[in-house]
Design goal:
With 265 residues, the chain is of the alpha/beta class. 38% of the residues lie in helices and 20% in strands. It binds S-adenosylmethionine.
Length: 265
C-alpha cells in the first residue's frame, strides 16, 4: 500500500522550492501536497517543479478567474492579466436578455471561454485554436459547458453559421515579438509552445489578422476584446480601427493588463 506524504513533509518541500527560486514556495508547497495522495507522487511533482516546469503544468490545472482550468503539457498556461478581458466580457454580456454568441479565438486551454461563460450566464460558446493539443485541452474544459471547440487558422476554424452573429469575440492571440521570446522567463520559453507566444517581428502579426476579420463575424453592436501589451496598445488599436470597428483601450495597472475594445456599428 503506497504511503501518504509524511505529515512533516511540508517544511522540506518549501525549502526545496525556495532553493529552486520559487517565490511563492509556501503556496506552491500547499498546492502540491493537496494534489499528491502518496509520498512517491509528491516526490515526482516536487522534482518536476524544482526542474523548472510551471506549477500549473505539474498540477495539471490552473486557477483562472476562480475556476480550475485543466492544462496539459504543450498548452499555454492562462495568465492572471487575462482576467481583465473576462471582466470586460462579463460587463457587456450580463443581462443581455437572450443567449449571446461568444467566440474565444486562439483559445489555448479554453480558459477565457470558460470564465466568460461563468461570468455572463448562459451563452452559445465557441472556441478555436490551430494547435490540436490546445483543441483537445479546450474540449476538456468547455465540453461540460456545452461549448464547441473548432480547429483551424483563426476565423477559418469557425462555422459559417456564425458570420454576422457573434456578440462577443475574445482573443488573446500571441503578441510577443519574435526577438523578445528569448528574453521571457524560462518557464514560458521552455515549456510553452512557440506558436502560443510568437506574434511575428513586431508582435502584431496575428492581432492584425484578428482585427481585420472581426467585423464580418460580429453582430451589429457586437464587441471584439483583444488582449495586448501596454506598449503595443496604440498599434493594436490602430489595427482594430482599420478593421472598421469603433475603438477604445482599457488598462488595468494592478494586473498589468491591456485590452483593446472594438465595437461593431
Ligand atoms: C497566448 S495563447 C492564449 C491562449 C488562451 N486564450 C489563454 O489566454 O490562456 C495563444 C493561442 O493562440 C493559438 N494560435 C496561434 N496561432 C494561431 C492561429 N493562426 N489560429 C488559431 N490559433 C492560433 C496558440 O496555439 C495558443 O493556444
Amino acid at each position: 500500500m503506497p504511503a501518504p506524504p509524511h505529515p512533516g513533509a511540508r517544511g522540506s518541500v518549501v525549502a526545496r522550492l525556495r532553493a529552486a527560486g520559487c517565490v511563492f514556495a509556501e503556496d506552491e508547497a500547499a498546492a502540491l501536497l493537496a494534489d499528491a495522495p502518496t509520498a512517491e507522487h509528491l516526490e515526482e511533482l516536487v522534482a518536476r517543479r524544482v526542474a523548472g516546469e510551471p506549477l500549473e503544468l505539474v498540477l495539471g490545472w490552473a486557477d483562472f478567474c476562480g475556476l480550475r482550468i485543466a492544462v496539459e503539457p504543450g498548452v499555454f498556461v492562462p495568465r492572471r492579466r487575462t482576467g481583465l478581458l473576462v471582466d470586460l466580457a462579463g460587463d457587456r454580456l450580463r443581462g443581455a436578455g437572450r443567449r449571446p454568441v461568444v467566440v474565444d479565438l486562439c483559445c489555448g486551454s479554453g480558459a477565457v471561454g470558460a470564465a466568460v461563460a461563468a461570468a455572463a450566464g448562459p451563452v452559445e460558446l465557441h472556441a478555436a485554436d490551430v494547435d490540436p493539443v490546445a483543441v483537445r485541452c479546450a474540449r476538456r474544459n468547455l465540453g461540460p459547458l456545452g461549448g464547441r471547440v473548432h480547429r483551424g487558422d483563426l476565423y477559418a476554424a469557425l462555422p459559417a453559421e456564425l458570420l454576422g452573429r457573434v456578440d462577443l469575440l475574445a482573443a488573446n492571440a500571441p503578441y510577443v515579438p519574435t526577438a523578445a521570446i528569448d528574453l521571457m522567463p524560462p518557464e514560458a520559453r521552455d515549456h510553452e509552445p512557440r506558436s502560443a507566444l510568437d506574434g511575428g517581428p513586431d508582435g502584431l502579426a496575428l492581432q492584425r489578422r484578428v482585427a481585420a476579420g472581426a467585423a464580418r463575424w460580429l453582430a451589429p453592436g457586437g464587441t471584439l476584446l483583444l488582449e495586448t501589451s501596454r506598449h503595443q496598445a496604440a498599434r493594436t488599436a490602430a489595427a482594430v480601427g482599420a478593421g472598421g470597428l469603433q475603438v477604445s483601450v482599457v488598462r488595468d495597472d494592478e494586473r498589468d493588463a491591456t485590452v483593446v475594445v472594438g465595437t461593431a456599428s
